[in-house]
Each structure stands twice: as structure tokens, then as C-alpha cells.
Amino acid sequence: MPLPTYIIERKQIYYFRIAVPKSQIPKFGKRQIWQSLRTTDKKTAVKNAAPLISKYAAIFADQPAFDQDLAKQVLAISHAYGFTYRQDSEIAKATNEEAVLQIGPALRALEKNLQPSEVEVDAFGGAVKPAALTMMDALQRYKLYCEDKFMEYSDERERDKRWRPFQQAAKAFTEVLKDVDIFSLKPIDCIKFRTALIAQVKEGKLKPETAQKKIMWLRLIHTKILEIERPELLPSPWDRLSRINGNAGEKGKRPSFSEEEITKVRTMLLDSDASKQVIALNLISMNTGATCKELTHLHKDDIFLDAPIPYISIRPNANRSRVKKNGSRIRDIPLVGHALTEMKKFPNGFSEFCKNNGSEELSRISNELIKGAAKDRTFYSYRHTIADRLRRSGCQDTLKNSIMGHASKGMEMHYGEGYTLENKLEALKKALPEGS
Which of 390, 402, 287, 387 has the alpha carbon at shortest distance from 335? Predict the structure, then answer.
């Protein structure tokens, strides 16, 4: 059985956690309330959490989590007390056995609160029809429930960037299905939305991988809401939806450069009027596979030009609190050929692009330059090109992954373990053509 709402397990210890309504954050001075339940036993945790749930349900009662609508209030209260809300008409249609299973949790919740408010009586008794919920409303609840998912990014702009795809997906859904109640959403509704996306793909308005990701974001939103508020409606209808593929488009991959194209791009860059930092960053990525942000936010302490094997270290630093996924993305990459030559020109990093939107600016400028020499290629194509070169050279996948920052199944290749700089240098020298 899943844990009741507001109870989480960390390192075998159970904790109570509840989000503070926005209006009361100034009062509490924090976004969430955490309290150890001081037990490793699930049943004891549920027992210990009961008074805390009652306490904060009462404190927040005059500031409901979502709005003042009665139907939404009873849903929030049932959520706070840890039972699934059902209208009395639903219970009336159930068998005796099902009715007992449905009423039991509400009765146990009532035992913990012998002086319930009128709204709590409505919640315990199933007196109100469950509120409809649009996808745009669900989006806001998802953000509330998963606040820690976005707060892990210390940079506010980065948080907004991570949040934007969810907003765009919910908006696209609403444009097709209007304000349909997601608690009543059927597979046929999901298919209708998928069909609309496919039409946009065929018209060239949307890339196949973007269309597929919109479905992925909606599935995440919908599933989380059902898990917390209406678990009896699981599984989500999105789970039954087939992937967008075939002529409508399979998940796209940014194409690599051919050897002729990348030589042409290198020559173009060296002869261009672009800034010296733009040229350097492109040539370094060309020989390392490092991404825009991995390079633009390098700190001088990440650049080791005087080491026996010169290299850069991709890791959290004074310029960034994290790199993508951290984990295997934290790595050291030897500098070879043009990458070493260009890095020596900027031993303290890249001041022109070390800022909030620096990586996007570099990408935009670079892509404009690249398309003049190689159509349908981008800065990110350097990364795919290095991966292909390593693969064609006979490099083992685990070593390739160690250079690229990809996870290897069954092996952890980060935090100083795994392949050495000597191993990586040998692989890159073998993979890169002469003159690179």
C-alpha cells in the first residue's frame, strides 16, 4: 500500500511534510513544514501523523490550499485526513463490502476529530459532489505538490525554464479539449489530443519529439493529481496512449556532422568575424562533446591547463549549483587539438557568456553561424558527432559514456571512479581526425 498523503520516508525514517499555503508563507517563514515522526514503522508513522494532520488542517482551514469553493475544500480536507473522498451517491451504488471499505477511512478520521467543522462534516459524510478540475487548475496543484522538484534549481530563471514545458503542455491541452474535467478524462480524450498533435507535426508546426514530450508532461501532471486526490481512478488514461511514431515522427535526434561538414564549420569559424569566445567555445565543444552551459559556466578552478594532461572539469562551482542531473554528468574531459589551443586563450573561463541566459545566447549565435556551413545542424550536434566518432573508433561504450557524461548500466563512472584521464585522452586521440 502507498504511504498516506503527507507522510514520506527518508533513509528508513518516516517524516510528516505539508506545503504551506502561499498566503501563510510570510507567517511561517518557509514553504514546507517538516517534522520527524520518530519511527521506522509505517503503522506507527500513520498514528503519529494523525494529530499533525489535524493540527495543520485546522491552522490552514481559513486559507484553503486552492480556493474557497466548497467542493474543493472538502477534497482538500479528505486529503489532509488521509482518506479518499467519495460522494454519498457513489457509496450508495457500491456493494456492502465496497461501502464499508469506502466509509471506514472517513469514520476513522472522524474519531480523531470529535468537534468537526461544518465543512469537515461534509467531507466525512460525502455530502458534496467532487469538484471538477481543469488541466490548468491541475497544473497549479501539481506545482504545489511537486514544489521541491522545481526548488532544487537555485537559479529562479532556471526554475522558470523547467516549469515552462508543463505550462505549454497544459495550454495546448486546453486549446484542444477546453475545460474538460480531468477526473472524467477518458482514453478517447487523450487520443483526440494526440491526433491534434500529429496534425501539427504533419503541418511542420511541431517537431515529433516536442509533441511526444507534451504528452509526457501531461501524464506527469495527471498521474500526480490522481495519486494524491483520486487514487481510485488510477491508472491514468495517458498510460494507455501509444507513442507518436511512424510518418508522424519518431523521437528525433539532433543529427551529427559528417566529416566534410565539421571541417567546413571549423574553417568557417576560424575565418569568421564572431567574437573570440564564440569561436573558442564552438571548437572546444567540437573536440569534447561538452554542452553550451557546461562550457559557458566553467570557473577558473575547473580549468587545468598546467596538468600533465590538460583538462576541464564539469561540475558544480561558484557559477552554478548543479550540472544536468549531476551524477554521471560530473566528469573530467582531456583537451585535445583545437580544444586545448582555444582553452589556453581563456584560462579564467568565458566572461561573455557566464550569466543566466549565457548558454542560450551562445547557442543562438552559434546556430546562426553553423547553418551557413551545415544545414539542419546545431551546437548540440557537436556532442552527437563526438559520440559517433568514439563509437566508430572502437571505443567501449562505458569509456564513451565516461567522456560524454552518460550513465552506464551496472557501473558508476563518476566521483573519481572509473576511467582515468589517460584512458580518455587515448580514446579521444584515436577518435579525432588529424588536424582536429
Answer: 287
Is the Cβ–Cβ distance between 354 and 319 less than 8 Å? yes
- What is the average pLDDT score of the chain? 82
- Say yes or no to pLDDT of 91 above 80: no
> Do the beta carbons of residue 139 and residue 170 sit within 8 Å?
yes
**Nine-digit cell string for 239:** 498510460
Report the amino acid identity of residue 301. Answer: D
The owner of cell 509505517 is 42
Choose among 345, 336, 310: nearest CA to 434. Answer: 336
Separation between Cα atoms, residue 369 and residue 379, nearest integer Å: 10
pLDDT bucket at 29, cuts 50 / 70 / 90: confident
Q: Which residues make Cβ contacts (< 8 Å) with residue 308, sequence separation at least 6?
A: none
How far apart CA 9 and CA 16 sit, in angstroms, is: 9
Minimal CA–CA distance to 19: which of 147, 123, 130? 147
In angstroms, the CA 399 to CA 320 distance is: 26
Q: How far is CA 29 from the centre of its chain?
A: 26
Distance CA 49, CA 103 (A): 20
Closest CA to 226 of 238, 214, 236, 215: 236
How many angstroms separate the first and last alpha carbons of the chain?
Answer: 57
| pLDDT for residue 309 is more than 90 | yes
31 pLDDT band, cuts 50/70/90, is confident
Mean pLDDT is lowest, of 141-145, 201-205, 333-337, for 141-145
Catalogue all structural domains in the chain, each as residue range(s) with its CATH number. 1-63 (no CATH), 69-131 (no CATH), 138-252 (no CATH), 259-431 (1.10.443.10)
pLDDT (mean) for 221-238: 84
